[in-house]
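so my prof wants the structure for this chain in the C-alpha cells format not the other one, which i didnt know existed until like an hour ago. anyway here's the sequence
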Amino acid sequence: MAKQQVSRDTPLAELTLRRYERPFDLKKRELVKKLCLSLGLLNPGDSRDVIVDVLVVILESRKTGQPLTSGEITEKVVQSRKQEKLKLLGIAHSNIRRQISRLRKLYLVEKSKNRYRIAENGMLLEAFAEKVQDFVLPAIVNRVRDYLRQVDDEFS
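here's what i got, hopefully its the right format
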C-alpha cells in the first residue's frame, strides 16, 4: 500500500487584524490588551494574556532607553502581574521568550545583543506603518488576489 502524502500548508506570512471601538479612557494595560487583540497577538477570551504584560514591560523600558534581556523582562512581568493581582499564568521563561518572538515577527520589537526594545527605539505606529502596513499587508493582499484570480479562472 502506498504511503499517503500529507499536505503541509505553511503560510509564508500571516496577519490577523481586528477592528475594535476607538480607544477611550483605558488604563495602560487595558489599552495594550486591546492593541494585542487588534493585532491578532491575543484572541478574544484568552485567559493567558501574558503577551500584554511583555509588551507593557518593553514599552515602559523605552522611557529609560535601556533594552532588556529576556530574563529582565520575565522578572518585570512577574512583578507587574503580582501588582495587578493577576494569576501567574504563562510566566515561564520559555513562554516569555516565545511571546517576545511573536512581537518580533510582527516587527514591533527588535533584538540587539540579546536585549530587546521597541523597534529602533521608536514609536509603535512608525514600526507598524513601515513594516506591516507598507510591506507585509500588501504582499498578503496581492497573493490573495492571485488565488482569487486563479479560482475565478478555474471555475469560469
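also thought this was worth mentioning. The mean pLDDT is 94.
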